Amino acid sequence: MSIVIITGGSRGLGASIAVQCARRGMGVILTYNNNSQAAKQVVATIEADGGKAVALELDVSNSASFLAFRDAVTEALAKTWGAQTFDFLVNNAGYGLYSPIATVTEDEFDGLFRVHLKGPFFLTQALLRLMADGGHIVNVTSATSRVATAGVAPYASFKGGLEVLTRYMAKEFGERRIRANSIAPGPIRTELGGGLTEEFEAMLAGQTALGRVGEPDDVGCMVASLLSDDNRWLNAQNIEVAGGYII
Ligand SMILES: NC(=O)c1ccc[n+]([C@@H]2O[C@H](COP(=O)([O-])OP(=O)(O)OC[C@H]3O[C@@H](n4cnc5c(N)ncnc54)[C@H](OP(=O)(O)O)[C@@H]3O)[C@@H](O)[C@H]2O)c1
After folding, report:
1. How large is the average pLDDT for residues 87-106?
2. Rounded CA gap, 137 and 173, in Å?
3. Mean pLDDT across the chain, nearest whole number?
4. Is there a contact between 35 and 59 (Cβ–Cβ < 8 Å)?
5. Tens digit of pLDDT for each residue in 55-82?
6. pLDDT the model gives residue 179
7. What is residue 190's DSSP assignment?
8. 175 Cα: distance to centroid of ligand 1 (angstroms)
9. What is d(CA 203, CA 227) in angstroms, rounded to the nearest whole number?
């Protein structure tokens, strides 16, 4: 059985990715930051479906905690699956913040940097030795790295950095047959940045070829299928999952 670690698996895209991966037979380790109850609910949904999942606490902005997190993963792998390694890592955790360049503060900038670029970098580094050869890393970036959307410059810049980092991961981990790809969702109906207002959603739907914004499962199903062996030759790519957003 393949085992996947999904950061930010308590809500939104991460919760959907967790459920969809479990439906395809993967064991799931999902992380939460503030919402342990929501994470428990995702675990319960997976178990009700006949799958196996464990929820672990992780603050992606706190790289000093990553070695302790690795110990918690080691314990969960042994206890739940009798395993010493996991196969797939989905760096998904994140948050949105509207803050134009003219007024963004250093604290806002640093917070977004820690979660969206530094966190995935050092978390991947910490977990590498537990990842099986032939594994797959999926980094969740954003269509805002292609389409400039006023008010999210630091967020989009770090997502762009994560796209570049993905190619370097593919380059450096290839000798262990570990692949790395990023997926860039367009607007999806989650609680990111406080969620979408009705008016904003209608505007975004009008900018999307398929005429609506995305739902979490539009991304969850895609990531779960991306992890299948059918995609074994896909490497070092950024794939937009956006229904044709501003094309
Ligand atoms: N929704 C969109 O339109 C969209 C578009 C493009 C890209 N994305 C990206 O997709 C990813 C998921 O976003 P979403 O829309 O699913 O957001 P969401 O519904 O707000 O969920 C965010 C998830 O990330 C976790 N999280 C937030 N800060 C964290 C931290 N410091 N450490 C660890 N976990 C943290 C949350 O955990 P807790 O709830 O436990 O605190 C939650 O599980 C993000 O990277 C986001 O940038 C989203």
Report:
1. 97
2. 10
3. 98
4. no
5. 999 999 999 999 999 999 999 999 999 9
6. 98
7. S
8. 31
9. 32
The single residue of 32, 155, 168, 245 carrying the catalytic annotation is 155
Residue of the nearest CA to atom 47 in ligand 1? 94
**Torsion (CA) 88, 46, 74, 63 in degrees, nearest 10:** 70
Is 208's C-beta closer than 6 angstroms to any atom of ligand 1? no
Tokens at 130, concatenated = 């537990």
Among 5, 11, 217, residue to substitute to test ligand 1 (most atoms within 8 Å of Cβ): 11
**Contact between residue 13 and residue 186 where contact means Cβ atoms under 8 Å apart:** no
pTM: 0.99
Tokens of 117: 């670029």
Task: Write down the residue that tokens 């059918």 correspond to.
Answer: 230
Apex CA 7: angle with CA 107 and CA 247, to 5°? Answer: 80
Tell me what the mean pLDDT of segment 225-246 comes to.
Answer: 98
Identify the pLDDT of residue 176. Answer: 98
Q: What are the structural domains of the chain?
A: 3-240 (3.40.50.720)
Phi, psi of 116 (to 5 degrees): -95, -15
Question: What value does the CA radius of gyration of the chain take, rounded to a whole number of Å?
Answer: 17
Could you tell me the distance, in angstroms and rounded to a whole number, from the CA of residue 98 to the centre of ligand 1?
15
Question: Distance between CA 96 and CA 194 in Å, rounded?
Answer: 8
Angle at which helices 12-23 and 36-48 pack, to 10 degrees? 20
Ligand 1 atom nearest the C-alpha of 96 is: 47
